[in-house]
Design goal:
Blueprint: E1 4-10, H1 18-34, E2 39-45, H2 50-55, H3 57-65, H4 74-84, E3 89-92, H5 98-106, E4 112-116, H6 121-129, H7 136-153, E5 156-159, H8 162-172, E6 178-179, E7 203-207, H9 212-224, E8 232-237, H10 244-247, E9 253-257, H11 263-268, E10 271-274, H12 284-291, E11 295-298, H13 310-313, E12 314-316, H14 320-332, H15 340-349, H16 352-363
Parallel strand pairs: 1-2, 1-3, 3-4, 4-5, 5-6, 7-8, 7-10, 8-9, 10-11, 11-12
Amino acid sequence: MKQLLFIRYRKSDSIDAGGEQGTNANYHVLCQIFGKENITVCHIHEKQSKIKMLLQAFSILLNFLRGYYYGLSPRKVKEIAALGMEHPYVFIDRSIFGVIAKELKEKAYKGKIITFFHNVESVYFEAKIGKNKPWCPIIVNCVTRNDQLACDYSDVIIALNKRDEQEIIRRYKRKPDILSPVVFKDTYKQTEYPAGDTQPVPTCLFLGTYFPMNVHGILWFVHEVLPKVNIKLQIVGKGMKAILPQVEGYKNIEVFSDVPNLKPYIENADFMLLPIFEGSGMKVKTCEALMYGKNIIGTTEAFEGYEVNFNKIGACCNTQDEFIRALNRVSEHPIPKFNRYAREVFVNNYSEEERKKRFEEVTIYRHTI
């Protein structure tokens, strides 16, 4: 008998966005605890053609109005709950699937339901979609309802940081059982790390998918900061070719879209640049930068939930002047390209081993079979 049902949004792509990277980290940690052979994986959303999506548009809208996020329906929720009944543990990887927790409890499920909040979804989707969009209330109402159901029917809820904890308490009157900050599988264990200093014209890397909050942040930087500093800017991420018309005419910008391997770009960069001003949860790209031992110049939002010394990591900047001063300073006074402090912060606080310890607290399970 398998021990845990892991419910995730979709199958992992070759190029995963931040949310899916977080999902993958959860799955890797649970495999360490339970053993991969003891986990059943359930995907909510299967990839469909645009034609099929258009044909199903009315039923998708109807399900949203009834509180079923994209990929779910009353029939599918019942099927997933029936599968869950066969497992002592059900791990729901996103709170937007709170309706599944409700269905399980109504079926008198006796096991443990654990729901992981990657964000406070109502806050996240308002920022993602924009309040002025006519479909925003439909989606936000759906995810808000599911957040509430996740709080009402889960045995354990896990949030990323104190900010999300306070927001969950305020909105849903439930305190998360544990906080488990963003982690990353350590794929950068080296016997020797890069030597040398940053360049007088530093290469600054912005890493992120073509996504409203990312686009808003990097375009703000391109318009307000880039003309006033002497750097080479690289924009790398899934779907980022769509940003090309908006940065046309600006010097010293390179855009790389849908690259299969981010490692060469990250290693080559002198600094990771994170001008993110909106969002919920924690930024996975910040954790990835720490893993690679990068110097980071980012906003308060980019560092939300991370315990770091800004002077040692690079700089925390929220205004045009702050970004300009920070970048001019490192252009005039090069620093080591590999930031040992950043790497140490990652290893000690944001590796998968840290999440494993927290997950073991709530599963009380040891793989001994």
